[in-house]
Amino acid sequence: MSRRPRELPPLPQRPYRDSFVLNLVLAGTILLLAWATGGSLGRAVVVAVGFLFVSTAWSWWRFRRRILQESER
Fold first, then answer.
1. Which residues neighbour 47 within 8 Å (Cβ) at sequence distance 6 or greater?
2. Could you say which residues of the chain have pLDDT below 70?
């Protein structure tokens, strides 16, 4: 049985902005959960900023790779 390459969904119109906004919402959720559970907000800010940076960099890197691959075809 041969496997066909999985087709990727189409790129959003503004992939970089959209991924940043999603990651910003998720970072805000980290802060909200820390506040709601009585956790350390200082630590939560550090974690949220770290998450925002790493997840946005990863998303942008993946989008850039995909855009370059599609332009080569």
1. 30
2. 1-2
Q: Find, among 12, 26, 13, 14, the residue nearest to 55 by Cα.
A: 26
Quickly count: other Cβ atoms within 10 Å of residue 47's Cβ: 16
DSSP-derived letter for residue 25 is H
Residues with Cβ within 8 Å of 61's Cβ and at least 6 positions away in sequence, in order, are none
d(CA 59, CA 68): 14
Residues 1, 45: contact at Cβ < 8 Å?
no
Burial string for 12-25 (b: 16+ CB within 10 Å, else e) reads eeebeeebbeebee
Q: Which long-range contacts (CB under 8 A, 24 or more apart) does 7-15 make?
A: 8/66, 11/63, 11/66, 11/67, 11/70, 15/59, 15/63
Q: What is the DSSP letter of 13?
A: S
